[in-house]
Amino acid sequence: MTAATKNDARIVAASASLGAIIVDDEELARHAVRELLRAHPEVHVLAECGNGIEAVKAVGEHKPALIFLDVQMPKLTGFDVLELIETDAAVIFTTAFDQYAMRAFEVHAVDYLLKPISRARFERALEHARTRIGKRAQQPQPHELAAAARAPLQFLERVVVKDGTRVTILAAAKLDYVEAQDDYVSLASAGKRHLKQQTIASLEACLDPRLFVRIHRSYLVNLERVTRIEPYGKDSKIAILSDGTRLPVSRSGYAKLQELLEQRG
Amino acid sequence: MNPHFLFNSLNSISALTTIDPARAREMCILLAEFLRMTLGLGEKAAISLGDELQLLERFLAIEKVRFGARLQMHEDVQEAATAAMIPPLLLQPLVENAVTHGVANLLEGGVVHVAAQVSGTRLTVAVENTVDPDAVSVRRGGLGLANVRRRLEARYGKDAEMRVSAEGGTFRVLLALPFEPSAEVAAAPAGGEALLADRA
Prior knowledge:
The structure holds two protein chains of two kinds. In chain A, 36% of the residues lie in helices and 31% in strands. Chain A is an alpha/beta fold. Chain A folds into two domains: 3-149, Response regulator (Rossmann fold); 158-264, CATH 2.40.50.1020. In chain A, strands 2-1-3-4-5 form a five-stranded parallel sheet, with helices on both faces. Chain A has a five-stranded antiparallel sheet with strand order 10-9-8-12-11. Chain A has a three-stranded antiparallel sheet with strand order 13-14-15. In chain A, helix 1 (3-15) crosses helix 6 (119-134) and helix 4 (78-84) packs antiparallel against helix 7. Chain A is elongated and about 70 Å long. Chain B has seven helices and seven strands. Chain B has a five-stranded mixed sheet with strand order 2-4-5-7-6, with helices on one face. Chain B has a two-stranded antiparallel sheet with strand order 1-3. In chain B, strand 6 and strand 7 (170-178) form a beta hairpin. The longest helix of chain B has 19 residues, at 21-39. Chain B is globular. The A-B interface holds A 25-29, 31-32, 35, 50-51, 53, 72, 74-75, 96-97, 114-117, 157-158, 169-171 and B 3-4, 7-8, 10-16, 18-19, 65-68, 104-107, 132, 134, 136-137.
């Protein structure tokens, strides 16, 4: 692509109309973003959301191209929201102070803005967003971003699951086991099953490996729930959980289990 | 002080400058007063509970601008208690926790309640706040609480007590320590109000 056509593409993008939503639990903070957008009549604010749950709903309803997303909010954080939405919107995080997120965003090219937000910095973020929207295919998926934005060595304490419009928050420590079902995982917790669109490998990567063990291609188990391991058939083994659930254990899964159980003494 | 507090306050001021310049200025003044009060406290071994409360009122007024109707506050302080001398900024982290781990995590907001009273030779102070009972991790401790506990121990040894409880939707920190009235109050008969007025 020559420099000229690149510029042309940018001019087209800059004048194109964009639908945006603003998510922040503080009204004044939402107002500040809205005000910065006033200089950009081509950006239409489709909704303002005072919490993450409203945000998840608004993304489904309005399908915005651009989301201004606060990180710290009640119930659902900005990261939780990203996990729950299916969108190719460009996401600009807004945060007062968050060194981990900043580090993550340096790796991924999604923008973040520190509050209070300066005009110059805001313009740059908007420019980035436009460039992004122009090449949608290369964007990482929201849940990938959420995983990347999590601080290193910090594991999920909770798993958010969306069922239709209902959002359930499960404490990671209360998960009994996870079963892979194609592109989904079935999360077993306190006798209930919750379905979430995620691969078992990507969930495994987010959970504390001292607590969750991949005992089988299709099963991830909470070590605290395992009461005993029994031989099953000629070569295989099964794990028996405290609620009586029996899960298959592969050979490599058994090696991992043994190692962890020994460490625990 | 939590850096979030400062940056979020500055963000509120930034938004207010165009919507309501008078309130923006008011908030600048509140923030300046709060910071000035905290700066001067480093050298002091003790301040009166009345002075600490003045600082907390500034702090909550600033947070109130951020959270609006989501933050409600109540104070139930016996007049005699305001004369009690306590280590400076003993209560500030408790109230800050009450906002950031309590009210800020609730969709509909909640209440921060500060109570203090003297009975005989003992001063009791309670800081309570609404919490989300469904929250996956209710933060019982954290650095703030550990620091308060350490400071109480360093200053009073076994004479001070700190109890933390979380029941239903309420998180409560209860402090019980020796009542040490300030020298001025011990000399003056009426105490309370006059003393606060002098210092203001």
